[in-house]
Fold this sequence. Notes:
The complex is a heterotrimer. Chain A has helices spanning 3-15, 27-53, 69-86, 90-94, 100-136, 142-177, 185-199, 209-216, 229-254. By secondary structure, chain A is an all-alpha fold. Helix content of chain B is 34%, strand content 27%. Chain B has helices at 44-51, 92-102, 108-117, 131-143, 161-177, 213-220, 223-230, 232-236, and strands at residues 4-15, 18-29, 33-37, 59-64, 77-80, 149-153, 181-186, 198-203, 206-212. Chain C has 2 domains: 2-82, Orthogonal Bundle (Arc Repressor Mutant, subunit A), CATH 1.10.10; 86-132. In chain C, 57% of the residues lie in helices and 12% in strands. Chain C starts with a strand and ends in a 5-residue tail after the last helix. Chain C is built from 5 helices and 4 strands, in the order ββαααββαα. By secondary structure, chain C is of the alpha+beta class. The chains are: A mainly alpha, B alpha/beta, C alpha+beta. The A-B interface holds A 5, 8-9, 12, 15-20, 23, 25-27, 87-92, 94-100, 253-254, 256, 258 and B 49, 52-56, 71-75, 77, 79, 81-89, 98, 101-104, 125, 127-128. Chain A: The chain crosses the membrane at residues 32-53, 59-78, 115-140, 152-172, 184-202, 232-252. Chain A: This is ABC-2 transporter permease. Chain A: Keywords: Membrane, Transmembrane, Transmembrane helix. Chain C: It comes from Paenibacillus mangrovi.
Amino acid sequence: xxxxxxxxxxxxxxxxxxxxxxxxxxxxxxxxxxxxxxxxxxxxxxxxxxxxxxxxxxxxxxxxxxxxxxxxxxxxxxxxxxxxxxxxxxxxxxxxxxxxxxxxxxxxxxxxxxxxxxxxxxxxxxxxxxxxxxxxxxxxxxxxxxxxxxxxxxxxxxxxxxxxxxxxxxxxxxxxxxxxxxxxxxxxxxxxxxxxxxxxxxxxxxxxxxxxxxxxxxxxxxxxxxxxxxxxxxxxxxxxxxxxxxxxxxxxxxxxxx
Amino acid sequence: xxxxxxxxxxxxxxxxxxxxxxxxxxxxxxxxxxxxxxxxxxxxxxxxxxxxxxxxxxxxxxxxxxxxxxxxxxxxxxxxxxxxxxxxxxxxxxxxxxxxxxxxxxxxxxxxxxxxxxxxxxxxxxxxxxxxxxxxxxxxxxxxxxxxxxxxxxxxxxxxxxxxxxxxxxxxxxxxxxxxxxxxxxxxxxxxxxxxxxxxxxxxxxxxxxxxxxxxxxxxxxxxxxxxxxxxxxxxx
Amino acid sequence: xxxxxxxxxxxxxxxxxxxxxxxxxxxxxxxxxxxxxxxxxxxxxxxxxxxxxxxxxxxxxxxxxxxxxxxxxxxxxxxxxxxxxxxxxxxxxxxxxxxxxxxxxxxxxxxxxxxxxxxxxxxxxxxxxxxxx
Lengths: 258, 237, 133
């Protein structure tokens, strides 16, 4: 594997955005999309602020939004390969003279970097928001901000640690749809979606009950509220990630249905 | 010594019940500009896709420069996919830089010359371009490469007359300088029939005639006449 | 079929006939007739291919044949020029004329005509055209 090529591939995937289908082709459509996103963000912040002003916002529960992250990560990586077909660029992508595993891994790493950018942005944006609340509203203390940030790191660690396999699943789902195994797609979708839902349904074994309760504000946040199975679980998922990437590469090399 | 750049022996590829390639047997000499001609759906694109290893035939044997197609052999092939588009978020300059990073034998200098010649605004986003402008950029990505074989799948389809002329003109310039083998598929031979010095006529997944285009002219007249005669059924549909 | 002018040469390309022979024949006759003067520069292969929209390899092959005919010569780094020697053109013209006569005679003989008959036909033709020549 040529490391310069791989670096460039990852950079290409990382910067890759836009679609002929979704945004039509005009820049005006992009502006509308931005306007709507800002509007939704404003409404969310507004609602949260309203409840905060009435001392009814359990700030740590903001982190429950991370439960939606695995799905977002899945669709991010699924779209990352799917778009080669939607944009009709797959001919260029597939005829690049590099190992299929290298192409797939570049998409994987590009997506993972995007996930990290998202995680860091969410962490700092919400932390800044809560910090402002604590300075403006007497109900919230600096201590609660600290607790909020620790809880955030706990939740986001989970997202960061489990994203590798979710990304690999997204890529596999996309590759299966372009392969001769397309008929099994529906079953695969049910299994994957259900599997992702399970991730946050395993508090008894991998995540301590503690952590779920921290979100409701009953307990002071602590570092590493997980049980010992979690690191093991993550490690296993990373090994499985590699296997899934190999499988995806195999599908692209031998089982494409174009 | 004249060798063949492409050898196909009884290559079959089916999609469901339809045979896109039906025991296609064909040799294409190297160093020529070969036109792969025939109506839509005659198997031209499937044939090209088997050359690049994207599609694996159900049976039969294919060799490109003596090797079975795979991602490795694409190192020596510049391929313009059929109905291809370019990444909409790229500017023209980014597209050329993409070529420079990933395509073996790519010359950025040559690509920039071609872009200048074809009147490309390097800072324009591909997403905001006309189909013709986009087609020119994609052609540059193929022509700026120093490789054994160039494979262009329907490069003239769906683009404006000016882009078409720019593409034909730069093809001629390019061909004058190179010794490469060029394969061009098209279902519309108007204005380009003088380009091909070797022709393959395809129909229903088979090569029904192949040979030097001048021999074809002696036998049947102009390529347009050949189209009219050989594909009468398809034209009347 | 439209006539195209490339430099001082005229071409009329018919895509239902072999292209190589058309280019060769039309370039030959242009030189033999003096349409392009002795020592003049021929259009470059690229120029001709571009104007006629044909494969440059075909033009190149025709140019190689012209060179073998002695009608043109390649100057290193400068391109192809019509020969400066009137003798070359004259001898090529003679050779071509001989070739045309041969095929003419062959056709006439295939009609069973004698020398006298042929001569008579030629005189008749000459008279019909107003006696020039």
